[in-house]
Amino acid sequence: MGRDGEQFPIIFTHTSRTGGGCLMQVLRRQYKASQVFPFYVKLKGGSTREALEEFIALPDERKKQFKVLGGHVHFGLHRHFDRYTYLTLFRDPVKRIVSLYTLALTSPRHYLHNIVVSNRMKLADFVGSGISPELNNGLTRMISGVEKVKFGGCTRELLEQAKHHLDAHYPVFGITERYDESVLLMKHYYGWGNPYYRTRNFSRTDLARQEVPPETLKVIQEHNALDIELYRYADQKFQAMLGRQDSAFQAELARFKKVNGWVKKLSSPRNGYFAITVLDAYSKLKHIAQ
Questions:
Q1: pLDDT tens across 175-219, in order?
Q2: What is the pLDDT of residues 79-137, one digit of tens each?
Q3: Nearest-CA neighbor of 238 among 73, 82, 88, 36?
Q4: Per-residue H/E/C for the chain
Q5: Burial of 109 (0-12, 13-18, 19+ CB in 10 A)
Q6: Which domains does the chain have, with CATH numbers?
Q7: Which residues contact 218 (CB under 8 A, 6 or more apart)?
Q8: Which burial class, exposed, middle or buried, applies to 40 when counting CB atoms under 10 A from its CB (0-12, 13-18, 19+)?
Q9: What's the CA gap between 31 and 66, in Å, rounded?
Q10: Whose CB has fewer CB within 10 Å in the chain, the N or C terminal residue?
Q11: CB 66 within 8 A of CB 55
Q12: Which residues pair with 13 in a beta bridge?
């Protein structure tokens, strides 16, 4: 468990299509609304830059009251604090890119939707188009903290910087493919209550990796070679974290999977996400009572 008073704020660097929206809801459930500052697009047609500028303009005393800073923001917010920890999620880069394409193709609200649809982009065209840096080593860009690198301009220096930041500033982090284990490791480190969750922004039309044509897979891998290496590096560290857990953790994990399975079943659009709504209400009442 992290040492109280030295772990906050938790700076969550959320790379898109890694399950970060779901984790952000877990984070919101653990802390008061006034203690959470989200870095997401607030205005239609805007960017996270508006949220960043809003945060920077806040008085230092207000900044110190936050326990969570989370969203699509690069490594670097710690410059405003003496004490902090970072948190993130890693996902297989090929799966992440395929998921990003699916979302852009099917969601009219996505910022790349119009250009993808109007140009009838196939997955390979999408990846190689250069229309967004998210498609070119997006994980490495986020964790390295280096912004405004042109498409195709990421270097091994950025990768090594990302690895260094992961080693030095992320005492715990998650792997999307091991989501339950990830949130339990976070729970133990930060002293959270149960981090039950419902999958958010899930697309049932995501292509499976084995369904991606070999030539398209090659394009994705070429444009995300650094991310693939960073993911493997993070996964090795994650497996080491799991290896240090005892049998009590494994028993807790089995219970968590069972209960959270029921939470997912009881939270659907049809029933108004009943279980999650109840958990959110309980969390708010608990914070009011504190």
A1: 999 999 999 999 999 999 989 998 765 554 556 666 899 999 999
A2: 999 999 999 999 999 999 999 999 999 999 899 999 999 999 999 999 999 999 999 99
A3: 88
A4: CCCCCCCCCEEEECCCCCCHHHHHHHHHHHCCHHHEEEECCCCCCCCCHHHHHHHHCCCHHHHCCCCEEEECCCCCHHHHCCCCEEEEEECCHHHHHHHHHHHHHHCCCCCCHHHHHHCCCCHHHHHHCCCCHHHCCHHHHHHHCCCCCCCCCCCHHHHHHHHHHHHHHCCCCEEHHHHHHHHHHHHHHHCCCCCCCCCCCCCCCCCCHHHCCHHHHHHHHHHCHHHHHHHHHHHHHHHHHHHCCCHHHHHHHHHHHHHHHHHHHCCCHHHCCHHHHHHHHHHHHHHHHC
A5: exposed
A6: 10-289 (3.40.50)
A7: none
A8: middle
A9: 9
A10: C
A11: no
A12: 71, 88
- What six digits make up the tokens of 1? 């468990």
CB 167 within 8 A of CB 159: no
Taking a C-beta distance cutoff of 8 angstroms, is the pair 184, 256 a contact? yes
Q: Is residue 9 reached through a cis peptide bond, with omega within 30 degrees of 0 on the bond before it? A: yes
Q: Phi then psi for 242, rounded to 5 degrees? A: -65, -35
Residues 6+ apart with CB under 8 A from 2: 85, 171, 189, 190, 191
- State both tokens at 123: 């997955």
Q: Going by DSSP bridges, is the β-strand pair 10-13/85-90 parallel, antiparallel, or unpaired?
A: parallel
